[in-house]
Amino acid sequence: MKNFETLAEQFGTYFNKRHFPTEPATLYDPNEYFLQMGGKRIRPVLCLMGNELFDEISEDAWYLGTAIELFHNFTLIHDDIMDEAPLRRGKETVHQKFGSNTAILAGDVMLVTAYEELNKISEHYLRSILSIFNKTAKEVCEGQQMDMDFEKLESVSYDEYIKMIELKTSVALAASLQTGAILGGAGQRNQELLYDFGRKLGIAFQIQDDYLDAFGVPEKFGKQVGGDIMANKKTFLLIHTLEAASAAQKKELHHLMTHNTTDKVAKMQQLFIDCNANEWVLKLKNKYLDEAIAHLEDIAVLSKRKAPLLELAHYLIKRDH
Amino acid sequence: MKNFETLAEQFGTYFNKRHFPTEPATLYDPNEYFLQMGGKRIRPVLCLMGNELFDEISEDAWYLGTAIELFHNFTLIHDDIMDEAPLRRGKETVHQKFGSNTAILAGDVMLVTAYEELNKISEHYLRSILSIFNKTAKEVCEGQQMDMDFEKLESVSYDEYIKMIELKTSVALAASLQTGAILGGAGQRNQELLYDFGRKLGIAFQIQDDYLDAFGVPEKFGKQVGGDIMANKKTFLLIHTLEAASAAQKKELHHLMTHNTTDKVAKMQQLFIDCNANEWVLKLKNKYLDEAIAHLEDIAVLSKRKAPLLELAHYLIKRDH
């Protein structure tokens, strides 16, 4: 049983090769450039771990992991266009460096290349893997569309936000684990439990991300603290605050969200605290983490096989209180 | 043996249904809107014809035809963004009506849905069909990128232009026929001949399109005559004229291409004629049509089975002397 770090290193070595033809360079070099930027490769490693939970890692899991990582990068390239993001990991995004048209097409061909990798998987698993891959790919698109729709809304309900997070982030983590488990020969029930572990872990991770964006220590967080606040992003904190606020607090919220004053971040942080959103959010995170771990515990394999996934859950989500 | 029109009507009926979930409507309704615009459905019908050349049309051919048509519409939605086209078939394009971000995402999910259709194909054919589909999808992206690259170049060689046309247009027609033939149980040699028939027919069709854009009868052509000339598009006519022109003619060409005067179309037409490009282009079209038909004749099935494809070739490409 290998832990996340060992598998991440192994996958990094395996994945670090040219994935595209050389010509036309105007199409394929942007994709090679983007893949060279690196990344944590969380999804393919989850796939390998899902496989190893039930059996030795098979050759198919490397093809599948590659497909999953290419798919993830396809979504990043297209999302960066939609978000008009100039930078990712400190480097120019594809559309910024090569133009939006090339970025659209480069993303498209990245997605097709993911399907080329999937087509290397053994006959016995091909259809069921394709089925989950396609379903998940559609859900990720739905989540991105919901996220864009939310930007235009005055307010978003807690249920709608959870749904969006699940689709945009969690299902891809969950499906990586599940498809890996299929390659390990897992039965339906164990697959479902592992899927739910990944899904709830993903939600807990997003809740933590929302919290850290407002209350994180800048040096540790790696992003500018208060970015979501400045952008009026409907996060777990804002959604709870909007629901819990008094009439006077709602008025202040509205004023802050319509005027980008220099003290906006500090005042919003105070409002979050006054409405107890920070405490509520941490409790919510713990709830999802606990549920994720309960699903993992229910999986019918020896506990020691689950140790790397449990370790990963605690590494990704820091328990508060 | 059914002819193109009969199969086009049958496929039209089969395809005329909802292809996407209802929610989120902001993502899926744009795709339904776009599919409702209609189209000639040439590619799926080629797939059905490729199947029927060798055997009765199987259920798989309808799934495959649906996947091929969804793929084609995905390329149209994304191409329209890149070309900044406001209209298609007289109606607003997806990005024009719903915004570029939604158009990117709607196209993405259209492509994934094409793969969902492919995953309905029988086990026995799934991998080989996926393999050709993926290869062709990449080539179509390459062709679109080359087309965009050409816009920025002063001149393009005949060989480069043929290559671009093949990738952007012909391979999709060729692959539709070939994958249909696979479902009909065709052997490798017959598959290749049918592929080459489609590939050369596609090139002949593009040559004809280039010719009609400059010399077509407006009422028959359906598009504005001279559009390519006004946009300085590197067509077969322009490429030949640039190669054949005298120094004085080159100077005039350059002047016309850098000044959008009101007599630009008329003067360019005259230059094409003076350089004999119109005659050369018609000969080239006939050459590709003849080669296409020769490939069809070489296929080892009874001549009467080939009749609908031969008829289609002559319907699509009008022979000029």
**Number of discrete helical segments of chain A:** 16
> Under CATH, the topology of the largest domain in chain A is which?
Farnesyl Diphosphate Synthase
Question: What structural category characterises the helix and strand content of chain A?
Answer: mainly alpha
How helical, in percent, are the residues of chain A? over 70%
Kindly estimate the percentage of residues of chain A that lie in beta strands according to DSSP: under 5%
Q: What's the N-to-C terminus distance of chain A?
A: 30 Å
CATH class of the largest domain in chain A: Mainly Alpha
CATH superfamily placement of the largest domain in chain A: Farnesyl Diphosphate Synthase
Describe the fold and architecture:
The structure is a homodimer of 321-residue chains. Helices cover 76% and strands 1% of the residues of chain A. In chain A, strands 1-2 form a two-stranded antiparallel ribbon. Chain A is globular and about 65 Å long. The relative contact order of chain A is 0.11. The first copy, chain A, has helices at 4-15, 25-36, 42-52, 59-83, 94-98, 100-118, 123-151, 158-183, 188-215, 218-221, 227-230, 236-244, 247-258, 264-274, 277-298, 303-316, and strands spanning 87-88, 91-92. With 321 residues, chain A is mainly alpha-helical. In chain A, helix 4 (59-83) packs antiparallel against helix 8, helix 8 (158-183) packs across helix 9 and helix 15 (277-298) packs antiparallel against helix 16 (303-316). The first copy, chain A, has 2 domains: 1-186, Farnesyl Diphosphate Synthase (Orthogonal Bundle); 187-321, Orthogonal Bundle (Farnesyl Diphosphate Synthase). Chain A starts with a helix and ends in a 5-residue tail after the last helix. Chain A contains 16 helices and 2 strands. The interface between A and B is medium-sized, with 35 and 35 residues.
